[in-house]
Amino acid sequence: MLIPLVMSLLAPLGAQAQTSLNNGDLQIKGSLDVYYQTSPQAHRPLGGSSTLGPNEIEGRSFDRLHNQWVLNSAEISILKKHKQVTFRMDLMFGMMADVLAGNTQLVTPADAANEAHEPTKNVAQAFVSYQPERFENLTVTAGKFYTPVGFEVTKTQDNWQVSRGFLFNYAIPFWHQGLSVNYAWVPSKFTTTLLLLNAWDGRLSQERNTQSTLGLSANWAANDALSLVYNYLGGSESAQSRQRRDVHEMNASWTATSSLIFAGDVVFGQEKEALAGADARWSAAALYLKWSPVENFYLSPRFEIFDGSDGFALSGFNPTPGVASRQKLQGATLTAAWRLDESFETRLEARRDQSDGEGFFVDADGTTAINHQESFTAALLYQF
User: Fold this and answer.
1) How far is Cα 285 from Cα 267, in angstroms, rounded to an integer?
2) What average pLDDT does range 280-306 have in this prediction?
3) DSSP H helical segments within the chain, as ranges?
4) What's the CA gap between 88 and 128, in Å, rounded?
5) Which of 47, 99, 130, 245 is exposed most, by the fewest CB atoms within 10 A?
6) Which fold would CATH assign to domain 2-383?
C-alpha cells in the first residue's frame, strides 16, 4: 500500500500533479474535504476585525477555524491524454482556495485584496506535459502545479494527518507557476527534475521581482521498502536581487512491515540580507509513523520542531518580525482514520503545539500571551 503512495508523494510535481492515462482517455475526478475543529485557545483573528468571522487557531493554514463545519475544498479534476501530450486542470472551491491565493486572515482588508487580485485563485493546478516519442524517459511540463517540496502535500486526502505541520505551513511554498523538465534515468528507481519558476508561490498578484526561482528534485527508490527525495529551490524573493532565498529539503520513507511505515522530513532555509542587512534562517524537522493494525484503519502520530528564532519565517517572511514570531515551535499530533469504503474516509485528530516563548500563541481572549495550544478535529473526506 505504501510504495505507490510514497512514490506519488516523491514524484517530480508532487502527489497531486501526476496521473496515469491511456492514450485518448478523458477522466473526470473529484474530491470533497469537510472538517469540524475546536480549540480551548481559539480567539479573534489577530490584527483583524473584532466582529467578523469565526474564531481562529494560530499557526495553521487550511485548518485554522474554530467551532465551524468548514468546506475546506471541493475539487473537480479534468485529465486528458492525446498521443504524447497530457493535460490536467483542477478547479478548487472552498477555504483552501482562499489560503492558496495568499489569504491568511479572511477578515482583514489587505489579505482580502490579495485573494481577490489573484487571477488563478480557483485553478489549483493547470498544466500540460509533453513526452517526446523518441525520448520516452523525458517529460516537460508547463503551467501551475503544487510544489514538489516536502513529505506533506496540499490535499488532505494525500496526507496521513488532517492538519499540516509547521514545516509545510512556514518552511516551503505551496505551489508554483513555471516549467519543469523531468528525466527518468532509471524508470521507477531514479529521476531528476529541473524547475524554472515564478518566485516562491508564483502569485501574479504579489510578484515583487523580475527574476526566476530555480529548482532541482532528485527521487531515488532504493528498494521496495526505502524511498529518498531531495529538493532545492533558490532565487530572489524581493525587489532586491541580492536578497536571495535558498531552501534545501530532504524526506524519506521506510516500509518496516506491511502494516508499519516510518517517514521523516527535514528542511533548511535562508534568505540573504533579509533582516536589516543580516541573513534570515529557518529549519524544521518532522517524524511520522503510520500503523495499520486492521484493514481500513490506521493510527498516525507526527512529531515536529520548527526553529524560527529570528522570526523571519514565522512572521510570513517579514523583514521586521515582532517578538511573538521569534520562537522555536514543537508539535505532537495523533490521527486515527477509518476508510468506510473505497471513496469515503473519516479522521479524528488531536494536536498539541508548544513554544519556547510566549506570544506566538495567545489565549481565548485574544490578548494573553501563552506558550501552547491544543486542538481537536474531525474530518470527512470523499473522492471519486
Assistant:
1) 7
2) 97
3) 2-9, 95-100, 109-117, 166
4) 6
5) 47
6) Porin (2.40.160)
Q: Output the 3-class SS for 171-237.
A: HCCCEEEEEEEEEEEECCCEEEEEEEECCCCCCHHHCCCCCCEEEEEEEEECCCCEEEEEEEEEEEC
Which element (helix H / strand E) includes 66? none
- Confidence check: pLDDT of 254 > 90: yes
For residue 103, pLDDT over 60 is answered with no
d(CA 209, CA 213): 10
CA dist 269 and 267 (Å) reads: 7
pLDDT-above-90 percentage for the chain: 66
Mapping DSSP onto H, E and C, the string for 317-334 reads CCCCCCHHHCEEEEEEEE
d(CA 22, CA 91): 22
Q: Average pLDDT, whole number, for the chain?
A: 87
Cell numbers standing for residue 42? 481559539
Residue 228 has pLDDT above 60, yes or no: yes
Residue 279 pLDDT level (bands cut at 50, 70, 90): very high
C-alpha cell at 107: 477578515
C-alpha cell at position 69: 463545519
Percentage of the chain lying above the pLDDT 70 cut? 85
Above 60 in pLDDT, residue 7?
no
* pLDDT exceeds 80 at position 108: no
CA 163, CA 60: separation in Å to the nearest integer?
8
Q: Say which amino acid occupies 231.
A: N
- The residue with cell 501526476 is 18
Gyration radius of the chain over CA positions: 20
